[in-house]
Amino acid sequence: MEYFLNEQQQTLRSLARKIAEQRILPVRAELDEKEEFPWELIREMASSDLLRIFIPEEYEGLGGGCLDLCLVMEELSRVCGGVAISYGANALGALPLINYGSEEQKRKYLPDIASGKRLAAFAVTEATAGSDAANIRTTAVRANRHYVLNGTKQFITNGGEAEIYSVVVMTDPARGSRGASALIVEKGTPGFSFGKKEKKMGIRASSTRELVFHDCRVPAENLIGREGQGFIIAIRTLDRSRPGVGAQAVGIAQGALEASVEYARQRIQFGHPISAIQAVQHMLADMATQVEAARALVYAAARTIDAGAKSFSEEAAMAKVFATDTAMRVTTDAVQILGGAGYMRDYPVEKMMRDAKITQIYEGTNQVVRNTIALELLKRKAMRE
């Protein structure tokens, strides 16, 4: 379909595809097998200015919008979801600073993120607070010019590799979600350490670790926004980032579709390619339709955000849910089309199927994100009455 991308967006998409095909493709299987963080590829993307896309121009970025980031995420994910999320999590970690940080914080941190000198990460999840972000237990107690942090964050993407962390903590536990705040914590701060690197089903090239805070003293000027604003910062950050997860899912599904078409044309059974079998043709047709529908919804949600809409929780949630469910269906069908070969690591679709699963889970499980859609739907209905 024609999405009427402007010249800059077309160039951006072409650049991301070139990096994916020429640099990521040759090493994706090795990175997945070794569970190795793709530092060399991140540096390559930095040198190509891909890390500047989502940073405002006044902080040495390119001032791109949500759609620009989605285009890059899609192209990278088409080849490797693990590398793509290492890139995407950097943008996620920067979003609280971009949207809620002080001028001093932005000038201190955003240029380093734009250049790739330092990566970022976003930390909300804990053992007792996944989708239930209001149940955060990590605390930050004000002590003169510092906050003293204690607690543990879990399943943090880019954990251990990033140097700048946007961390949601409880500054006033008695107030529940209204007592949450967001702080910038730098790698190397005394009292801040990392737990084990998680062994994952998919996106193995990315790093997922615990963050451990033990009497970690963080300067008070590292508070993002105001005290008590942390829950709002977390929710609105996820609203802005969910189309990016949708784009990751679209890319994974597109890669699986392309691998399926190629294999179906080459695999001979009963004297002809399996692409001549109507049952296979219908599977491919459904896969292609689902991918295109998901792409259209993701792009529409991204454009809604870029247009400056005041509220976009519903659109972002729909894009995330539909695209990630699509990725799981399409990659499962891809494995089926390839048959026994699809189950083997010699072919990429088994990796794509593994990578697709996490997109239904992180940044809000699809079951919880559906609650967001329903809430917005019912709220709109109530306003009409």
SSE arrangement:
Elements: H1 7-24, H2 28-34, H3 39-47, H4 66-79, H5 81-100, H6 103-115, E1 120-123, E2 139-143, E3 146-157, E4 164-170, E5 180-186, E6 192-197, E7 208-219, E8 223-224, H7 230-266, E9 268-269, E10 272-273, H8 278-306, H9 313-338, H10 349-359, H11 366-384
Parallel strand pairs: 1-4
Antiparallel strand pairs: 2-3, 3-7, 4-5, 5-8, 6-7, 9-10
Helix pairs in contact: 1-4, 4-5, 4-7, 5-6, 5-7, 7-8, 7-9, 7-10, 8-9, 9-10, 9-11
Uncertain regions spanning at least 5 consecutive residues: none
Radius of gyration: 21 Å
Task: Give the beta-strand count.
Answer: 10
Query: Could you give the order of strands across the largest sheet?
Result: 1-4-5-8
Look at the structure and give the mean pLDDT: 96
Span of the ends, CA to CA: 38 Å
User: Helical segment tally?
Assistant: 11
CATH class of the largest domain: Mainly Alpha
**Beta fraction:** 15-25%
CATH topology of the largest domain: Butyryl-CoA Dehydrogenase, subunit A, domain 3
CATH superfamily label of the largest domain: Butyryl-CoA Dehydrogenase, subunit A, domain 3
What spatial form do the alpha-carbon principal axes imply? globular
Structural class: alpha+beta
What can be said about the biggest beta sheet? 4 strands, mixed
CATH architecture of the largest domain: Up-down Bundle
In sequence order, what are the helices and strands, one letter per element?
A: HHHHHHEEEEEEEEHEEHHHH
